[in-house]
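Quick one, T. Sequence first:
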Amino acid sequence: MKSEIPRQAGFTLIEMMVVIVIIAVCAALVIPRLPSTEGSRLKDSARNLASALRFLNDQAVITKGIYRLKLNLAENSTAIVKLSAIGDELPPDDQFLGRKFIEDGISIEDVTVPRLGTVSEGEVVIPFGPGGTPDCVTIHLLGGKEHYTIIAFPSGGKVKVLEGYQEVTL
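C-alpha cells:
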C-alpha cells in the first residue's frame, strides 16, 4: 500500500501575483478619476456662493430692501447684512443668508467690480437694492491649484459659475 502525501489547499505564488497585478491595474485606472476632496470643496463653495448671490438679489428685489454682501478676502469669509430705514446694519431675515458659503481651505483670490477694479486684499462690499446689484461682479475662488469664477450680472439676478480663472469683459 502506497502512502499518499496529503496535498495542502491554497494558492500558488503565481496566482497571488496575478490577483495583485489585476488589483493594481484597476486602482491605477480608477484613482485618477476620483474627484479630489479639495476640488469638490472648491466646486461646492462656488455653487454655494452663486446660490447666495442669486437668492440675495431676489430678496432685495422682492422685499425692496437694501442688502450688502461683505467679502473678507483676508479671512476668506462672507457676511450678509440688511440695512434698516435709518442705515443700521441688521442681520438678514432669512436663515439661508446667515450660513457659511465658503468652505475651509478655499480662498477668495480676488473680486472685480467696475467701480473698484480688481481687489485682492481687504474687504469688498457689494450692494444689492430693489433693482438687484448695480454692477457686474466677478469673484475668483482658489482651492489648491484649481480656480472657479463666479460672475453676477447686474439687474437681473443671473449668476454664472465657470471652471478656471476667467477674465470677464463687458
